[in-house]
Design goal:
Radius of gyration: 16 Å
CATH superfamily: Alpha/Beta hydrolase fold, catalytic domain
Number of domains: 1
Mean pLDDT: 94
Order of helices and strands: EEHEHEHEHHHEE
Largest sheet: 7 strands, mixed
Strand content: 15-25%
Structural class: alpha/beta
């Protein structure tokens, strides 16, 4: 995996980790995190190599303290990275993170990818954007076709392997401010299956869906 780093201020760099089937081009499309120094993956996430590749990049750039905002699968990866590197992550925001992914849903996703990848992913994206009509239209115009042309089935399956095997830890990273953020109207990661972590703050947005990361932008719902 490769990363980009753009320093916009003297603040702690913010690492954004997107969800399964998405990448960090969401940041540019929706103009997220304005004014922040941003650390972004420049490819779809590979759960197998993320830790090693990100660690190497941080060492090369001499970055010794970051904030992490992880969404969906990216939240699980961000939590795991924070636990593996105590003291590195100052703040960790975990958005739309589910406590576990049922085997039947994982199997259905595998069948969808193997049978009709473009059709399955179009339906998956539609479900992710329920409640975000304007943002969904922007996604369809700006990213969906490129995603469908670039998605690697093997990488999608690796992501499903990671989700299937993921379990929540019984603690949060020491010296890290952790906040779990969830939308009450999330159909991909239902709120009653929201991750619960001892020591983490929790915010439930009453009108938020799975794209809860967009709720910071008023008028996009």
């Amino acid at each position: 995996m490769h990363f980009s780093f753009v320093r916009a201020s003297d603040d702690i760099p913010l690492l954004f980790l997107p969800g399964w089937g998405f990448d960090a081009r969401l940041v540019q499309l929706y103009r997220l995190f304005p004014g922040r120094s941003l650390l972004l993956p420049v490819s779809f996430l590979d759960p197998v190599s993320l830790d090693a590749d990100l660690s190497a990049f941080l060492r090369t750039e001499k970055i010794d303290r970051i904030a992490v905002r992880g969404w969906s699968m990216g939240a699980l990866l961000g939590l795991a990275f924070s636990l593996a590197h105590p003291g590195l992550v100052a703040r960790l925001d975990l958005l739309a993170m589910r406590n576990s992914w049922p085997r039947q849903e994982i199997d259905a996703s595998r069948q969808g990818i193997n049978g009709d990848l473009p059709g399955y992913m179009r339906e998956f994206y539609r479900k992710c954007f329920l409640g975000y009509k304007k943002a969904y239209q922007e996604f369809q115009r700006g990213l969906q076709d490129r995603y469908l042309a670039e998605l690697d089935p093997e990488l999608l399956h690796a992501g499903l392997d990671y989700l299937a095997a993921s379990t929540l830890p019984g603690k949060v990273p020491p010296e890290t401010k952790v906040t779990v953020i969830h939308g009450r109207r999330d159909l991909v990661a239902p709120v009653d299956q929201m991750a619960k972590l001892p020591g983490a703050a929790c915010e439930i947005l009453p009108h938020g869906g799975h794209m809860v990361l967009l709720d910071q932008d008023e008028g996009r719902q």
